[in-house]
Amino acid sequence: MVVGSVPVGRSMCVAFAFICAVVVPMTLGDGYALILISNSLVGLPFPLINALLLGFVFAKAPERMQGRIASSLTAPAQALSAFCGACAGGLITAVGFRVAVVFFLAMLVVGALIVLLSPSIRAIPRAAAWSEVAL
Q1: pTM of the predicted structure, to 2 decimals
Q2: Which helix (H) or strand (E) holds 14?
Q3: Is residue 122's pLDDT more than 70?
């Protein structure tokens, strides 16, 4: 029910900023509890991001294009995620934990900046008003 009641654009801004904020403590330490808590919190906004953004994309896409859109969104993400563990392990081995986390945080900040600075993303309204959004 959250999907229908919150403005998508503003929620995306908050979600991406939250993800960045919970990774910052890992740049300061590498204790098990800190890593466990940060990694647990970083995933909290993902269901909201998926529900809101994908809901909007699929609501605006013609029905005949839904399968193509799903493939174009999921196939690259799945292909890239197959290499994430190897990239993270290689980076940690090469430069250490903190530098690897700083690099990861930098990528998250770039993603957050894209969301925060994109007027078209910030302007996505609640689900009830999606039909009024021109693409």
Answers
A1: 0.87
A2: helix 8-23
A3: yes
